[in-house]
Amino acid sequence: MDKVTISDLSQHEGKEVELRGWVYNTRSIGKIWFIILRDGTGLLQGVVVKGEASTDAFLLEQKLSQEDSVIITGLVKKEPRSVGGFELGIKDIIIINHVTEEYPISHKEHGADFLMTNRHLWLRSKRQNAIMRIRHQTVKAIRDFFDSNGFTLIDSPIFTSNAVEGTTTLFEVDYFERSAYLTQSGQLYQEAGATAFGKTYCFGPTFRAEKSKTRRHLTEFWMVEPEMAFVDIDENMTWAENLVGYIVSKVLENCKNEFDVLERDINILKHIVPPFPRITYDEAFEILKSNGSKFEYGNDFGAPDETILSQHFDKPLMIHRWPADIKAFYMKRDSNNNKLALGVDMIAPEGYGEIIGGGQREDNIETLVKRIRHHDLPLEPFKWYLDLRKYGSVPHSGFGLGLERTVAWLCGTRHIRETIPFPRTMTRLEP
Amino acid sequence: MDKVTISDLSQHEGKEVELRGWVYNTRSIGKIWFIILRDGTGLLQGVVVKGEASTDAFLLEQKLSQEDSVIITGLVKKEPRSVGGFELGIKDIIIINHVTEEYPISHKEHGADFLMTNRHLWLRSKRQNAIMRIRHQTVKAIRDFFDSNGFTLIDSPIFTSNAVEGTTTLFEVDYFERSAYLTQSGQLYQEAGATAFGKTYCFGPTFRAEKSKTRRHLTEFWMVEPEMAFVDIDENMTWAENLVGYIVSKVLENCKNEFDVLERDINILKHIVPPFPRITYDEAFEILKSNGSKFEYGNDFGAPDETILSQHFDKPLMIHRWPADIKAFYMKRDSNNNKLALGVDMIAPEGYGEIIGGGQREDNIETLVKRIRHHDLPLEPFKWYLDLRKYGSVPHSGFGLGLERTVAWLCGTRHIRETIPFPRTMTRLEP
Fold first, then answer.
1. What is the pTM of this model?
2. Residue-range domains of chain A with CATH
3. Interface touch B155/A103, C-beta < 8 Å
């Protein structure tokens, strides 16, 4: 008899199969009863009919608990009314492990803190299962996009030796009698990568020790960072919008059931097709002003500002050419206005905030040295970074896309702690 | 005119194209001279002929330095004697950035430490470029293997809260007035994943603070860790050999040029097709004994032992059923011999050492509690881990494959520091 998964049932219609999984729920309507089985690939309704099922199986009705692990055998039947379109006519049920204590997570509502403490079990729920599958498909889409567009994967290191811009948001590590710091961005290493390989990306965890408890912050989150030689700010924006467009098209293609579970309106997502709107920081400022915002020119946009801006567009919005003073030292200046930096942020629609930050990098060594001095930073730690301008410097650009914020937007979930398997925040290190 | 890359030249035969890259080398034979261009996707020979190239371009011969960044235009010609099969009849050369100081890495030999200090530039060399491409294709093959076999990606966390097995090889992090530790393995979290999704994997950086300076050790390295519900030690070994067989087949398919650069004998790799030999620890012990080794029963195999064992097989070797005393507390015991743990290690051929460690996990809660107590470990930090046995426990297994050791074997390179873009060791945190 074939051992199959729920997701593969359509290939076994009319056949007797074996499934292995966990009891999600049971219910009775007299002479027949139903078992909802989950096996990690989906949910399946099994019908237990006296005379068709073994006597032992039929008598299990009162004995089964939620999350009992079981092996069941039965006949695969087409049933359009069932989720997935199939149903199992149960022949036999073997209990592998019987749950004797009540399962902590019932099908009722629970508080967020309780659920986070039971994250190892909460992941089994329909909703969390759907979000993790969308996360997986997002990761796959990102990697496929870069792999099929000539990028080489160059993993940036996690351990870095310097905290030249201050240790406020850096995690410090005891490293063989000296200190190391956990990376906040792999960008500088990707710049080395781009001059060696043309186009590179890294995709790994990054860390920020922010004393922030908002729904948008994690201390540990994943970021993908492409970097491209011979690419300016405009082409950089084209790469950014094409990446996001590709992600959306792939999750729409592969995660229909998951969006159903989340009750996410996918018509909004179907509209996310490049090109995306591009406005300057100055234009964004004008939009805020005409909406009565008290936003002051020269600041970074806060979450409320981003929400106002995103409401004016039904696609992700790219804001470019920022006041140089609020951007990092390595950003190239606009040749038309030296006070502006060639940075770009992408704001997700529906108020989900910034999902991409990037820009064109300064490629002139004298300008970069001046900029480092102006920011009161030491030159020595940047020696290798300056080498990239000394030997074969080229115009180059890149950006970073935050995985969890992107998944939160795609899933329509407000709190990013649901978008990573085991979230880490200021107050949470377990499970 | 089309802007193209060297890897795409075959699609532009007979056309004039623009290429952007860096000067790798130049040489002259009188009235014509040659420029070797690298653009990150490959190397290309350009021919500069008086009368065919612009006068400006022709006169550049004495001016160009290694690693000058340039834009060149020319005619794509078939040339079977050239690497890649094509040559460029140069029309014009525009220098973007001229190198005025001598490039530190010439085409001569350099010491390892000097090269590691200049890792940001060393990555541009032919050999390092080839290794990184093989690494990329290995990563891609691993992810494709799991994605196409029904596994869900469940990233394990990097920050963990406990150091119950001692802090000797753990990196400690200041975490908001308490301590966190960098993960050494995502396994326990994958066990939670497997009971939620059936089959899961994580693939990220892991950390070991080992005071070891051997060629096999990095403080930061990447590991892929699959975990599967309803899978025993035997099926676990089948997954492990199929994964490695798939990786080898994909890099052979996609990295022919790279293996040429490395002068790696791919006939040895072509032979790596599952099934792989499986022997018990006891059988391995007998092999060592009959080879005159002084290895003592009950120990873990050292590098010299692994080398002896690998010499007896031309495929990766799986050694299973280990003395339980030298394996972790969570390993399930062999039902035929309670002194043996159902662990498995995979040893690469040609003396490249262990690339996989894994096994079947203990799924009985009483046995596991007893084991934790026997190891003098506190129960409280394992509460969530024990929950996985309390609610729907199932037989399950998994393993971890070390990326850098695998790439070192595939590439035939003895020191794993060449297999990661920016290696971190006891003494190295830069660049």
1. 0.97
2. 2-97 (2.40.50.140), 119-419 (3.30.930.10)
3. no
